[in-house]
Amino acid sequence: MRRAIALAARALGSTSPNPVVGCVLLDAQGRPAGEGWHHRAGTPHAEVNALRAAAEAGHDIRGGTAVVTLEPCNHTGRTGPCAQALIAAGVGRVVYAVADPTPDATGGAATLAAAGVDVEGGLLAAEAAAGNAAWLTSAALGRPFVLWKYAATLDGRSAAADGTSRWISSAESRADVHRLRAEADAVVVGSGTLRADDPHLAVRGPLLGEGTVTQPLRVVVDTHASVRPGARVLDDAAPTLIAVGEHADTAHLTGADVVRLPRNGTGLDITALLAELHGRGVRSVLLEGGPTLAGAFVAAGAVDRVVGYLAPALLGAGPTALGDAGVATLAKAPRLAVTDVTRLGPDLRITAVPTTATTAPEEN
């Protein structure tokens, strides 16, 4: 199962609106016979890819075992039902990690059992769910999973008093951010970040050499449509969506993909923004916005994971990493559980999740 989880992770950022899934096939003697993973929506699922690999290698998997990270699907969409493919192949046992929570695809386990296949669920469920957190959260909440990433000094400053912010974090941390981008369906920034840094937001560097990177949708939250026509996010390196207020003047953005959203207070309604992205097939969002936009997401209860890159530097002044999040007293502060601390060059990368967030199911 751990091998299947590792296979599934190869397609992070490429399968939405589908989940990432990995599958390992064993023959009747328990020997590895084939493996596969789901590459992208509309292409064969993990089980079918594993069955093809086994057939091409000349392995007989009749009476064997399929080990899958997600319950085999039970419906016909752009591809056929995996439960039926496993039955037709003569697999005798199926072990899966996480049950499929979607009403269309669920029921694969019951279909397999009715056909006489021995079925077991829940193996390494927590590990498999963690690898599929974006899709599972999206399925549960009806909005994309949001990872807020920021870089700051040890005293919590995201820029100096004069506005300079390049580079607070190290080259190693910046390379890691490109990994996060490659694993996300969309990267979101606000108009303040766009004006200050003119970021490109596309995946760059060695990851592109791997040949499997799908560039994320670049999303600019720009209430007043202040983005300049020559901004780097408007090039053709990756698709871009500009979210503006309902009455913003967008005449200068001819040819750009623009969506009008309702306002909530001083900015755009975050819930409406996430609903729009979800409707476009986005299941995971990397929030790279500045303190104002980050505060709006936190205030909306729309941050599912936080990754902070802490650099060993002190500024003592300048903007903080998080702006007003509607927290007036310590008793109302969102609490987080630290899940990982890693050294990246001179920096520390700290990963944490809200303790009250809707998460994937625990292992039985």
Commentary on this structure:
The longest helix is centred in the middle third of the chain and has 13 residues, at 171-183. This protein has helices at residues 2-9, 46-56, 82-89, 108-114, 125-131, 133-141, 171-183, 191-197, 270-279, 291-299; strands spanning 22-26, 32-37, 65-70, 93-98, 118-121, 145-153, 186-190, 217-221, 240-245, 257-261, 263-264, 267-268, 284-287, 305-311, 336-344, 347-354. With 364 residues, it is an alpha/beta fold. Residues 357-364 have low confidence and may be disordered. The strands form 3 sheets. It has a 9-stranded mixed β-sheet, sandwiched between helices. Strands 2-1-3-4-5 form a 5-stranded mixed β-sheet. A two-stranded antiparallel sheet has the order 11-12. It contains 10 helices and 16 strands. The radius of gyration is 22 Å and the shape is elongated. Helix 3 (82-89) packs parallel to helix 4. It folds into 2 domains: 1-132, Cytidine Deaminase, domain 2; 142-354, Dihydrofolate Reductase, subunit A. Strand 11 and strand 12 (267-268) form a beta hairpin.
Under CATH, the topology of the largest domain can be stated as Dihydrofolate Reductase, subunit A
Characterize the main sheet: 9 strands, mixed
Low-confidence stretches: 357-364
Order of helices and strands: HEEHEHEHEHHEHEHEEEEEHEHEEE
Q: What is the oligomer described by this structure?
A: single chain
Mean pLDDT: 90
Beta-strand percent range: 15-25%
Which word captures the global form?
Answer: elongated
* CATH homologous superfamily classification of the largest domain: Dihydrofolate Reductase, subunit A
Helix content: 10-25%
Radius of gyration: 22 Å
CATH class of the largest domain: Alpha Beta
> Which architecture of the largest domain does the CATH hierarchy give at level 2?
3-Layer(aba) Sandwich
Tell me the number of structural domains.
2
Number of strands: 16
Q: Report the structural category.
A: alpha/beta
Q: Largest sheet, order of strands side by side?
A: 10-9-8-7-13-6-14-16-15
Keywords: Hydrolase, Metal-binding, Multifunctional enzyme, NADP, Oxidoreductase, Riboflavin biosynthesis, Zinc
Domain CMP/dCMP-type deaminase: 1-120
Family: In the C-terminal section; belongs to the HTP reductase family. In the N-terminal section; belongs to the cytidine and deoxycytidylate deaminase family.
GO molecular function, one term: diaminohydroxyphosphoribosylaminopyrimidine deaminase activity
